[in-house]
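Appendix B, example 12.
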Amino acid sequence: MYISLTHLYRNFALRHHWQNLNLDQLVKRIIPAIVIMSIAYTILTLLKLYAFKVMFSPGFSESLFSFMMRWMDVFIAGIRIMSIWLLAYHLYQYARREIRVTKENAQLAIMTREAQLSNLSAQINPHFLFNSLNTIKALVIDQPGSARRGIDLLSELLRNALYNSGAVLIPLKSEMDLVHDYLELEKLRMEERLTFEIEMDSLLEEQLIPRFSIQSLVENAIKHGVSLQKPGGCVQIDISRLGDKIRICVQNPGMIDLNTPTTGIGLKNLQERLRLEYHGAASFDICRKSGGKVWATLLIPMP
């Protein structure tokens, strides 16, 4: 009987979307609902008690009307019971709504982050392609043989890039294959002026890192370091484990003005991708070292 009363209220509230109302709107509806439900509770309770008296109390002769005059105590009890039930019901509905909204917001945040990461990764490909084409262009007239080799290397670079085009993170080994081809392509242009050394912990080969992350550092090292030195120089890449992170260090000869903010597309793009992917757990730093060296260091968390 009482379950039917609360069930009727539940259906009414759901039909009129009371679960989506703000607090002020809900209170204006709950107070009259408590009164109405308490009246219904009082009537049902008194009728039930009167029926029990008639059936189980021999000699009971009080009229229904006079019996119903005792409504005040039952009504007050009804106010208490219905207030507690309605409060519990709407707190439950509120909690469900908050959980649903939190889940939806989390899903939207994930979708937004993935879209941002995809867009940032997509920006890298044309930037990378134009730089590689400029390198080959410089070789065509003076060194046609090297230009042909450059085209082969670019084809391999593009094949790797397109193969992983949908991936935000790729294995470290795949990134280093791309970096090696890129260095070979740049070496065709710069010849003896560019040398490179790579040291990598083989146990880290399958660890996932942002696509084009090391390539961006190497490109920056050549463009703003080695190519500006008359004798050229060596790009050194050292990849090792540091605690629970992968430490990627790219060194090159040259100078850097630490008071000038990073303006290159590749590095700005990399910093933004690290922020979105790792939420502050990854870091990027570029600094001067003794001996005319510039060090760019990435620290990427391992899963």
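The chain has two domains: 2-105, 143-301. Residues 2-105 form one domain.
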